[in-house]
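Predict the 3D structure for this chain.
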Amino acid sequence: MTTEATGTPDGPPAGFREGVPCWVDAQLPDVAAGRRFYGELFGWTFDETEGPEAGRYVQAYGEGRPVAALAPKRDGRMPTVWTVYLATADARATAARIKDAGGQLVTEPVRVGPAGTMALAADPEGAVFGLWQGDEHPGFGKQREPDSYCWTEVYSRDKALVDPFYEDVFGFDALEIEEAGVPFRIWSPAGTEAGPETAVGGRSLVTGEFAAEMPGHFLVYFSVTDCDATVAATRRLGGRVRVEPLDTPFGRMAVLADDQRAVFAVLEEPVQGSVEDPSQG
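Done. Predicted structure below.
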């Protein structure tokens, strides 16, 4: 991994506040196919030094800046999925809070060379997310710009169980709103006033539109300049459309799956004045 930013011992990874999404990766059966799909869809390039095409962890870049990574599935029983990582100053301390709050550790904190320390966790309903304590690799070099990460939300069935979990573990300030008739909760970093201008993630509900067996899960969004064109490109590249393009108060969005069935969303944000990035410390 190639970024040179350095974390600090008494704060979150450089540039990212506690609990803020700072990285995403996709676990895929075929990393080489993933490179072709996302390379064409988003214009990403990939770090050739991370290993052979057969598939070690491969970092993706947008305009030369780190945006995501693709990783090979080590076990065919593992889901093909995009995972979001939340920034932490101390992965072991956060892991302990996760357990105390009713969550579980899928992977205990482990050092990833000089890049940082990672862990995988699950909330009380089983939605999986990562922790990242950055060192030489603090996280996104590009985000909230076209063809890069812009948002995440967790889908749950029991908000009374899930909401306190994330707010206790990460200290989020929260605001309950309604989106298309569904109660939706947005989270802002601790110490900020919760609202659309400061939100870094949210919680939606698994409603009757989902399959009965659908578990709690995270959905990762990427910003695009043209939602409909991205949907058309996804189909052309062998992917699928889970939710057709629709207009929301936050922009035009769609839910897609790549040609290996990893699900993600895209958002074409309305043109507006610039706002302060709440992820930055």
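Residues 197 and 275 are 7 Å apart (CA to CA).
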